[in-house]
Design goal:
This protein is mainly beta. Helices cover 6% and strands 22% of the residues. It contains seven helices and 45 strands. A seven-stranded mixed sheet has the order 28-29-34-30-31-32-33. It has a seven-stranded mixed sheet with strand order 38-39-44-40-41-42-43. Strands 9-11-17-13-14-15 form a six-stranded mixed sheet, covered by helices on one side. Strand 42 and strand 43 form a beta hairpin. The protein is elongated and about 195 Å long.
Length: 979
């Protein structure tokens, strides 16, 4: 209780202090606006806060002992028990209950006077809540209103609507302007009506283009005329946001004075026309065609190819070509073109019925032209460039085509492939109806007078539907050093060799023929000028010697051609007893069409007759004026035959390639042949001829023959030219050992090498030499051993037989090889078995009928990958349907397909471009000379066998067997593998 009373006293003191501080003046006459101490001692009035440093609180209370004036009550002998109720609403000041509804005895004494004001004034502590009716809050504090809009400068109310007495004095002059001028501080807001903002600042323009460079702040707008902006920034502080890399000037629309001078550098513009295109594989293209660049500031800018995606005009695919242009300012432009390379268009083939050059000079009977070299024309055409190709007259009348170039070959053919004109620019010869044979043609100029050599493809008149075929020098690539390296020889020998020859044009891919064949009249050849000596004993049919006529039977294929009879239609007054030149007319007919030709026959008393051998064409009569004997020639002139005797020693001083020369020994026998037409050399060891450039070349045959001459040897020459009469004569009689007969020449007598020692007669019954006319008359043994040649008759008493008795060669070999018939018994020493079998282990043997080919172990393969690069490594490649790879070989080989019984079913003749079936050669081939094996493999059926015999290996012996199969359909081709 004592403690409670002390607390009550302290609360009263505190209330007095609060009441005292609400007065205008505190003790000491302090102004109420000065510091108000919140910790005043209730007894002495001094400050209780030791940490307060205010002057008003400098004197601190040192403390007071509290003495309760009420004496302690006497102890109650019977004290009441301590109350157990805990008041939950005790007054914080006196501890009495403040809950009027609480009726607990402990809370019987209430504390109505110690109401805790929740709205006490912060200044005087009195209640500011007008609705509060508590006795404690009976005295309100209306004068200490807390202003919520006090001026930050003077603290007075700035709220005009506030009517509190505290806020009665307003301070409108301390209005805070939100739109002060940065220069003068006056209001720039015209709508603001505050008295503080009554004075406006209309003259201090706010610049919107102030230079932000530190220390400047001047106007950047050259067009602004405000006084505030009269001083301009010179622009030296401006940093351009997009300067040109080349000139450094501004590239934007910036109006800063520093950027007033704009960049004048231009950018190139590339145009690609067309931007999307297609072409065919194999066509030529210049990737920059149709690509242009323009640039107003650079006239010399160029376009480059930045990326071509490894463009290959021969490979199918789509390529995006990127072009780049960079001008002198370093500015770039790019553009693209998309090129799609489509599969190549088909080549065009020119096919002939026969390759008269031979396979060693030109393989096959076809020469190809790229698709782009086929030109369709509707009218006259003159080219500015030297080109090869096939030119088609697609009009209804004649057109004239002129192509520049010299020394090439041209042919003009009808719509059905008939040659009506040929131009041999290499030899300067014109072939036409008046000059039907190229080799004997004497026409060297065109109708206009221009030379054929220099204008071979000029002024070509092509009939309606016809074609002109032009081969320039260097057109085809048949290999350096080849007889015909560019196709001109192919044209001369196979196309324009004779007027009326028939060729055909066809597309290689689908074998579509452009020149449909028409039945032709028989072709007559060999009707060249011939010479005879005057004689009363003369068979008129001799004028037909060398002339032949062939009929086509209405087809292009030469396999069904047949000879027809030639008739002398008009002798032209021929008289063998009267010297002169006679024109004899000859005819040949197939029953529908007739061919008429003429032959010049000369009768003369000046004849030079040469005989080589004893064949059907061994004798030839030449006009004496056309035979040169021991002449030091500087050019060929009109000579058809040349003879150099052993006495001639002035050398060879004129050029003549592709002719024939034979060397004759002192006995009049042919000992060496220099075949310049075919580049082959013949002698005793090479009777079939061999191609050996160290011994004979096409261009040097004559010099090589002359330089080989030994004592007593003669040289006979059939030159290339003047109708090739002499050359053909030697070609027809190329036989080593043949006897030569020349007018007024006596060769040395024959020396017999088979003289009988007993009687001196010739032992060689076959020898026809006059010196050997006397033969041996001695005993002729009739029991000669086939092995040793000696007598096997032990009863014969003739000296010649008793001294040459056979020692017994009746041995019958029991170990004969079934493949080669040689003896397989190495221990057998019988003479009959001297020829041993060398073995066939691992060999592959192909036999069909009487034809046979044997491939050694390393020269054949089965179901093994073959390509164009390794095809020539084997002579035989065999495939069946168990093989899963691909087949591709080199060109000009043969593929043979056998049926399930091993019989020949199909032949793909890549050597000649022909497709053969049991019915014969087909009208066209659906493959090329290089794709024959690939096509054959693609068409192989289950149970069939494919045999590929490529071009080249083993002297083409295997390929020859394949070619033989063309005529052996239905026969079995046996395949034997020797284990």
């Amino acid at each position: 209780m004592k403690t409670r009373r002390i607390l009550t006293i302290l609360a009263a003191v505190l209330m007095l202090c609060l009441a005292f501080t609400s007065c205008d003046l505190l003790p000491g006459g302090k102004n109420p606006t000065e510091h108000v101490c919140e910790s005043v001692c209730g007894e002495c009035g001094k400050c209780l806060d030791a940490e307060c440093t205010e002057d008003a609180c400098a004197e601190k209370c040192e403390g007071h002992e509290v003495v309760d004036p009420t004496p302690d009550p006497e102890p109650n002998p019977n004290p009441d028990p301590e109350p157990t109720h805990t008041c939950e609403h005790a007054c914080e000041t006196c501890g009495k209950c403040t809950d009027a509804e609480c009726n607990d005895a402990v809370c019987a004494e209430k504390c109505p006077t110690h109401h805790t004001c929740e709205h006490a004034c912060e200044t005087c502590g009195k209640c500011t809540d007008a609705e509060c009716n508590d006795a404690v809050c009976a005295e309100k504090c209306p004068t200490h209103h807390t202003c919520e809009h006090a001026c930050e400068t003077c603290g007075k109310c700035t709220d005009a609507e506030c009517n509190d007495a505290v806020c009665a004095e307003k301070r409108p002059t301390h209005h805070t302007c939100e739109h002060e001028c940065e220069i003068c501080g006056k209001c720039t807001d015209a709508e603001c009506n505050d008295t503080v903002c009554a004075e406006k600042c209309p003259t201090h323009h706010t610049c919107e283009h102030v230079c932000t460079f530190e220390g400047c702040g001047k106007c950047l707008d050259a067009e602004c005329d405000e006084d505030v902006c009269s001083e301009k920034c010179d622009g030296n502080h401006h940093e351009c946001e997009n300067p040109c890399d080349f000139c450094g000037k501004c590239q934007n629309e910036c109006d800063n004075v520093k950027c007033a001078e704009k960049c004048a550098c231009t950018t190139p513009v590339i145009e690609v026309n067309p931007s999307v295109m297609e072409m065919y594989a194999g066509d030529e293209i210049w990737l920059l065609f149709g690509v242009t660049v323009t640039d107003e500031g650079d006239d010399e800018v160029e376009v480059l190819i930045e990326d071509d995606q490894e463009f290959d005009a021969s490979a199918e695919g789509t390529y995006v070509i990127t072009y780049l242009a960079i001008n002198k300012f370093g500015r770039e432009a790019r553009a693209t073109r998309t090129i799609t390379v489509l599969p190549a268009k088909s080549d065009l083939a020119l096919e002939v019925t026969e390759n008269k050059l031979g396979e060693n000079k030109w393989q096959g009977n076809i020469i190809n032209f790229k698709n782009k070299l086929f030109v369709e024309l509707d009218g006259n055409y003159t080219s500015d460039t030297i080109i090869s190709g096939v030119f088609h007259n697609n009009s209804n009348g004649d057109i004239v085509v002129s192509i520049p170039g010299d020394y090439g070959i041209a042919a003009i053919i009808t719509a059905n492939g008939v040659v009506i004109e040929g131009r041999d620019g290499s030899s300067g010869k014109l072939v036409n109806a008046a000059n039907p044979v190229r080799t004997s043609s004497t026409a060297s100029t065109l109708p206009s007078g221009k030379s054929v050599a220099a204008n071979f493809a000029q002024e070509m008149t092509i009939p309606a539907g016809g074609y002109a075929i032009v081969i320039q020098t260097g057109y085809a690539d048949n290999g350096a050093g080849a007889f015909d390296h560019d196709g001109r020889g192919f044209m001369n020998y196979n196309v324009i060799h004779q007027y009326g020859n028939v060729v055909r044009l066809l597309w290689v891919d689908d074998q579509t023929i452009l020149t449909p064949y028409e039945n032709q009249a028989p072709v007559v050849s060999g009707h060249t000028t011939t010479v005879y000596a005057g004689s009363v004993d003369f068979d008129i049919n001799k004028v037909l010697e060398g002339v032949k006529a062939i009929d086509d039977k209405g087809t292009f294929e030469p396999t069904d051609d047949v000879p027809v009879e030639i008739t002398i239609a008009d002798l032209g007054g021929f008289n063998i007893e009267v010297a002169g030149t006679y024109t004899i007319t000859l005819t040949a007919t197939d029953g529908t069409l007739t061919t008429t030709v003429t032959r010049q026959v000369e009768v003369t008393t000046s004849i030079y007759t040469i005989i080589i051998g004893n064949g059907s064409k061994s004798q030839k009569d030449f006009l004496s004026d056309y035979v040169a004997i021991d002449k030091d020639l500087t050019k060929l002139g009109n000579y058809q035959f040349i003879i150099y005797s052993p006495a001639y020693n002035k050398g060879i001083n004129f050029a003549n390639g592709y002719g024939e020369a034979i060397v004759v020994n002192k006995y009049g026998e042919v000992v060496r042949i220099y075949d310049g037409a075919n580049g082959k050399y013949y002698d005793e060891n090479n009777k079939s001829g061999v191609q050996d450039a160290t011994k004979c070349t096409a261009s040097g045959y004559l010099t090589e023959a002359y330089n080989s001459r030994q004592e007593g040897e003669w040289i006979l020459v059939g030159p290339n030219g003047n109708g090739n009469i002499g050359r053909q004569f030697i070609l027809d009689n190329r036989t080593i050992g043949a006897k030569v007969v020349l007018p007024d020449v006596t060769f040395a007598a024959h020396e017999c090498v088979s003289v009988c020692a007993k009687c001196g007669g010739c032992l060689d019954e076959a020898c026809q030499e006059d010196a050997c006319a006397t033969k041996c008359s001695c005993h002729k043994c009739e029991s000669i051993c086939e092995i040793c040649g000696k007598c096997t008759d032990t009863t014969c008493t003739e000296e010649i037989c008793t001294s040459n008795q056979c020692q017994g060669h009746a041995h019958l070999c029991e170990s004969k090889c079934e493949y080669c018939s040689g003896c397989t018994d190495s221990s057998c020493t019988e003479d009959a078995c001297l020829t041993k079998c060398e073995g066939h282990s691992g060999h592959l043997i192909l036999t069909i009928g009487s034809k046979k080919y044997e491939a050694t172990e390393n020269m054949w393969a089965k179901n093994t990958q073959v390509t164009s690069s390794n095809a020539a490594n084997k002579a035989v490649w065999i495939f069946d349907k168990s093989y899963t790879g691909t087949v591709a070989t080199n060109g000009y080989g043969v593929a043979v397909v056998l049926d399930a019984e091993g019989k020949v079913a199909r032949v793909y003749d890549g050597a000649n471009g022909g497709y053969w079936l049991p019915s014969g050669k087909q009208a066209s081939a659906h493959f090329t000379t290089s794709s024959y094996a690939t096509v054959a493999w693609g068409e192989l059926q289950e149970g069939e066998t494919l045999i590929v015999l490529p071009n080249g290996p083993d002297g083409n012996k295997g390929r020859q067997l394949g070619l033989d199969c063309r005529y052996l359909f239905g026969q079995k081709l046996n395949i034997t593998i020797v284990e």
